[in-house]
Amino acid sequence: QRALGCERALAIVRAVAGREQHIKMLHAKIASVNRKVTEREEAARQLECALHASRRQADDLTTHLETIRACLASFELHCRSQEDWQDLPTIKIGRSLPLDTSLKSATSEHSTTCTAQDLALRGSLFFETTCD
């Protein structure tokens, strides 16, 4: 009977040891999952920051584009007010006008002011390129 009791006790000890090993494995898996969650949360935070910066840049570009369109509309009005306008070949100015980035103007990253001098420079350069 004593041997039977020892065998039972030994079986219980082995079962408990097996469960303890299983518990350690589960703790390791939980720690691994927690690390992955932390890494993914950081990646999500970085993506949200990049998205915010891209949206801000898109807003800035939209504002800049609206300023350019306003300058073009002002330039068109300026050209139409000139007496010689009827003598010029038909020129369409507006959204379909390709913007030549090589033209120097009074605009910059810091200033989007469209001045009369800027319009005159664009007008003379535009007229030269369309008449050639």
Describe the protein's architecture and organization.
This protein has 132 residues and is an all-alpha fold. The chain contains 2 helices and no strands. The protein has helices at residues 2-81, 116-131. Helix 1 packs across helix 2 (116-131). Mean pLDDT is 75; it is low at 100-113 and 124-132.
- What's the rounded overall pLDDT mean? 75
Order of helices and strands: HH
Main sheet specs:
none
Assign a percent range to the helix content: over 70%
SS summary, helix count:
2
Low-confidence stretches: 100-113, 124-132
Relevant terms:
disordered C terminus; single chain; mainly alpha; 132 residues; 73% helix
Put the structure in a nutshell.
The protein has two helices and no strands.
